[in-house]
Design the sequence.
């Protein structure tokens, strides 16, 4: 009888131990998820009319290629700041069709699309990661640094980016993002022509402009 009571007591203690351990694990997991995904404070809806421009140079001249009239209904979520972490978390992505690049010169346009592997990888993707701080969102320009992931030709790379924010007369956000990238960042070789006599520089200046409507929770 004594042995039975001891066994039952041991089983009860083991059961309590498992319940306590499970509760701690569940609390830790839930807390981790909350820390990783804080509540959304604001949403920015991308309006029609955005554009992306890349500028570069060769040993002969300079060039500029553009994608205009971006019209996909994308949304950028702006999260509340996480205590103990730097920056304001963002979540949202732009997907631009590489075949829409126009360099205003047929041969140059074809060369760029071929170099960027437009057939194999038809989209250039920009994923928003974070802002150093929230913009003031008034008629005065706010210059803020941020982080984005750019995916091109099947390769993704993280970049620091310079933003300029400004509120227009309709209360929408005007955003300008600027950053220099290299063809080699995405394992691409700059295009060459005429047996290598015309060589494109490795560096490109990337600039994208968006107009966004503010949705507050």
Sequence:
């Amino acid at each position: 009888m004594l042995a039975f009571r001891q066994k039952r007591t041991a089983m009860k203690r083991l059961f309590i131990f498992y319940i306590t351990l499970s509760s701690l694990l569940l609390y830790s997991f839930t807390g981790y998820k909350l820390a990783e995904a804080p509540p959304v404070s604001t949403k920015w809806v991308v309006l029609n009319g955005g554009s992306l421009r890349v500028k570069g140079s060769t040993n002969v001249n300079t060039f500029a290629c553009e994608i205009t009239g971006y019209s996909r209904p994308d949304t950028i979520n702006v999260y509340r700041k996480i205590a103990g972490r730097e920056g304001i978390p963002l979540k949202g992505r732009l997907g631009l069709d590489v075949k829409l690049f126009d360099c205003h010169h047929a041969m140059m346009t074809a060369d760029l699309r071929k170099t960027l592997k437009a057939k194999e990888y038809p989209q250039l993707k920009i994923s928003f990661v974070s802002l150093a701080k929230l913009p003031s969102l008034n008629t005065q320009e706010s210059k803020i640094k941020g982080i984005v992931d750019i995916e091109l030709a099947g390769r993704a790379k993280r970049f620091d980016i310079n933003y300029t924010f400004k509120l227009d007369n309709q209360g929408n956000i005007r955003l300008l993002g600027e950053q220099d990238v290299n063809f080699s960042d995405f394992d691409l070789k700059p295009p060459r022509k005429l047996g290598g006599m015309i060589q494109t520089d490795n560096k490109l200046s990337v600039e994208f402009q968006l107009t966004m409507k503010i949705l507050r929770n």
The longest strand covers residues 203-216. Residues 14-35 have pLDDT under 50 and may be disordered.
